[in-house]
Design goal:
Blueprint lengths: L16 E4 L6 H19 L5 E6 L5 H15 L2 E7 L2 H10 L4 E5 L8 E7 L8 H12 L9 E4 L3 H11 L8 E5 L9 H8 L2 E5 L17 H14 L3 E5 L6 E4 L5 E2 L1 H12 L7 E5 L5 H4 L1 H5 L3 E5 L3 H11 L3 E3 L5 E3 L10 H14 L4 H6 L5 E2 L9 H20 L3 E2 L2 E7 L4 E5 L4 E6 L6 E7 L3 H18 L10
Parallel strand pairs: 2-3, 2-4, 3-6, 7-8, 7-9, 12-13, 12-14
Antiparallel strand pairs: 1-5, 4-5, 9-10, 10-11, 14-15, 16-21, 17-18, 18-19, 19-20, 20-21
């Protein structure tokens, strides 16, 4: 008897799909997801046998999941091209290189063990946005599948093609000593080779593949991972430290003194470095990012425009594409380089390469380069637990409260709110450049809280305490993953 189909509807997130394997979805459920995706690809491309590029990350169960997904895709008529063990950006790149019609990457990125998921896209360089996810969910859960005759072929040696593409255009002159940390995730097969290839002196940290993640999750926002990189940078007297997430589309950065540099500041440094060469460019940043972009002298001098947009790799990617922006930067470490610097998708290793170019072109250490930016006091990204079915409503209620606070000119730490941005949750800003953000996480049952102040550490904390007090009052908030 075949097993019954298990597929939790909540696994369909804003721009990808994620489940705890076997608890929330089983292999029959994954097969149905493949049928749903195949049906959707056929509908959007108008092709009877669209070519779909598929890859998987290094988790013990990812190959099984990929096999079930492929079975579903083939049953609709898709011609699957399997490039094997991959990073998400390698699959995105393969769509350009092999001219595929769509992509499906089996990965749960940096989520804990037990999680699985799929990142997918049809239009080159873009991943599913909420509309496509909603459509996919409807097709999959209501069995609106088409039937066809597809096939599968293995593409061998694609890792080398991807590595060479990044190495060949990016050679550096300086011997930059770089700690490359992969948290035992899939990037360990790629990042050290590529960075060595461009000319770095690489010190590997946790680059051996181990799907049990014995030390910590491969997540460059995880403080444990950042502390380990910091120690390795200091122990080895390195110029820079890079931390890559589980599927290689994000990077975290530690300077030569062992200090973490938040990714939005790295984005600003890269934007400043690119601005004189690419005048009149647009940069897209997410609502969790520093307010320094809007006041930066170099960007202003070169007539560059900054647009704040929704957090989430799919949203920023689409906005970069739509605005024909030169680059996009997300606080979580997803960076997007558009032509001529990249294909518009997020690739953590390409981001690290751009930081190497920055060091290569300036006769300064990373810590000195970062000191050229005005100092701000930033909180880490904090995520208090909030049920999936309640989180959006909580944010909506809090937004109304802040709108009243602004209207009535009620002061928070002696300053009234100057401006409110509701493109994604609520970001409220003050005259001195301080701000706070509350939004719903798009891939976990939690909210996301960030605060920043150019004035003082104390002010950053006061803004957070104010947010926390409002949230606690709702009675719908659980433990924080980390707190300032």
């Amino acid at each position: 008897m075949s097993q019954s189909i298990k597929i939790d509807p909540l696994g369909f997130r804003e721009y990808d799909a994620r489940w705890v394997y076997k608890k929330d979805i089983n292999s029959e459920g994954i097969k149905n997801l493949g049928k749903g995706l195949g049906t959707q690809i056929i509908k959007h491309t108008g092709k009877e046998n669209p070519r779909v590029i598929v890859g998987h990350d290094y988790r013990s169960y990812s190959e099984d999941i990929k096999s079930a997904l492929i079975e579903g895709l083939i049953s609709t008529g898709c011609y699957v091209e399997d490039i094997g063990l991959s990073l998400s950006p390698m699959v995105y790149f393969a769509q350009f290189n092999l001219n595929g019609d769509a992509v499906a990457m089996v990965t749960a990125s940096h989520n804990e063990n037990g999680w699985t998921g799929v990142k997918m896209g049809i239009q080159k360089g873009l991943t599913h946005a909420p509309n496509e996810m909603k459509e996919l969910k409807d097709i999959t859960l209501n069995n609106k599948f088409v039937n066809g005759e597809g096939n599968e072929k293995k593409i061998n040696g694609f890792q080398k093609i991807y590595k060479d593409d990044l190495i060949n255009n990016n050679k550096i002159n300086k011997k930059i000593k770089a700690v490359v940390a992969c948290g035992n995730g899939t990037a360990g097969v790629f990042a050290p080779d590529i960075l060595r290839g461009i000319g770095c002196d690489v010190i590997e940290l946790d680059c051996k593949l181990d799907w049990t993640f014995p030390k910590y999750n491969p997540n460059p926002e995880d403080l444990k991972m950042l502390h380990a990189i910091s120690k390795a940078v200091k122990d080895n007297n390195a110029d820079i430290g890079f931390g890559f997430d589980g599927d290689g589309d994000r990077v975290g950065v530690i300077d030569n003194e062992g200090n973490e540099i938040f990714s939005d500041k790295i984005g600003l440094l890269i934007a400043r470095h690119l601005a004189p060469t690419y005048k009149n460019s647009k940069f897209i940043i997410d609502v969790k990012s520093t307010s320094l972009f809007t006041t930066d002298k170099i960007l202003k001098e070169n007539n560059c425009e900054t647009i704040y947009w929704k957090t989430g790799h799919s949203h920023i990617k689409r906005k970069v594409n739509k605005e024909k922006a030169l680059a996009g930067f997300e606080k979580s470490g997803h960076f997007f380089f558009n032509k001529p610097l990249g294909y518009g998708f997020d690739d953590g290793i390409n981001s690290a390469i751009h930081i190497c170019h920055l060091l290569d072109n300036q006769n300064l250490s990373m810590s000195k380069i970062i000191k050229e930016l005005p100092k701000t006091y930033q909180s880490p990204t904090m995520a208090p637990y909030c049920k999936d079915e309640e989180k959006y409503q909580v944010v909506e209620e809090i937004t109304k409260e802040f709108e009243i606070l602004k209207k009535e000119k009620i002061e928070i730490d002696n300053q009234p709110i100057k401006e409110i941005l509701t493109v994604n949750g609520i970001r409220f800003m003050f005259e001195d450049g301080s701000w706070g953000l509350i939004r719903a996480s798009s891939n976990k049952p939690s909210l996301v809280i960030v605060t920043e102040s150019p004035s003082s550490d104390e002010r950053k904390r006061k803004i957070f305490e104010f947010i926390d007090k409002l949230l606690q009052k709702t009675g719908k908030i659980g433990e924080y993953d980390q707190k300032i």
